[in-house]
């Protein structure tokens, strides 16, 4: 994947360059926690078929994915995009997975759905 720099204020760059962290000392804590977030997003969007959507590079998605909205991780950031004619356009870049997930569910469901954060707590490290 090609990466490029963009101009942002120093405080934004400093925060965005921090590695993802989790309170658990387990070596796979971040990945396990993110798997739960992606699962909760897909649960919140069950039954929403229009607009189409995909999460975690298509691992979870609506039944069809012709020109979906997408939410996935790249490095230590979370991208939300809209795809049209095979080209992705960035809608948002987030440092925080929970904020990105909330925005994605709001965007796809047009404000009608929300994430139930009480589900699948057993998946948290």
Q: In a nutshell, what does this entry contain?
A:
With 125 residues, this protein is an alpha+beta fold. The chain has helices at 10-16, 29-44, 97-109; strands spanning 53-55, 60-61, 69-74, 77-84, 87-94.
Could you explain how this protein is built, in words?
There is one protein chain. By secondary structure, the chain is an alpha+beta fold. The chain has one domain (10-123). It is built from 3 helices and 5 strands. The protein has helices at 10-16, 29-44, 97-109, and strands at residues 53-55, 60-61, 69-74, 77-84, 87-94. Helix 2 runs parallel beside helix 3 (97-109). The two termini are 29 Å apart.
Which features does this protein show?
globular, five-stranded mixed β-sheet, alpha+beta, 125 residues
Task: Produce the secondary structure layout.
Elements: H1 10-16, H2 29-44, E1 53-55, E2 60-61, E3 69-74, E4 77-84, E5 87-94, H3 97-109
Parallel strand pairs: 1-3
Antiparallel strand pairs: 1-2, 3-4, 4-5
Percentage of helical residues?
Answer: 25-40%
Provide the domain count. 1
Average pLDDT confidence is 93
- N-C termini distance: 29 Å
Principal-axis shape? globular
The proportion of strand residues reads 15-25%
Return the structural class: alpha+beta
Largest sheet: 5 strands, mixed
The largest beta-sheet arranges its strands as 2-1-3-4-5
| Poorly predicted residue ranges | none
SSE sequence, one letter per element: HHEEEEEH
Number of helices: 3
- E-strand count: 5
| Global Rg | 15 Å
């Amino acid at each position: 994947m090609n990466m490029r720099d963009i101009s942002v204020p120093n405080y934004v760059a400093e925060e965005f360059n921090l590695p993802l962290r989790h309170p658990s000392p387990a070596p796979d804590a971040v990945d396990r926690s993110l798997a739960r977030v992606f699962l909760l997003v897909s649960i919140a969007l069950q039954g929403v078929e229009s607009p189409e959507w995909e999460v975690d590079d298509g691992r979870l998605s609506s039944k069809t994915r012709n020109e979906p909205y997408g939410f996935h991780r790249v490095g230590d950031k979370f991208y939300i995009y809209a795809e049209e004619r095979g080209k992705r356009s960035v809608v948002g870049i987030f440092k925080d997975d929970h904020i990105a997930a909330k925005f994605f569910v709001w965007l796809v469901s047009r404000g009608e759905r929300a994430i139930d954060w009480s589900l699948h707590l057993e998946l948290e490290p």
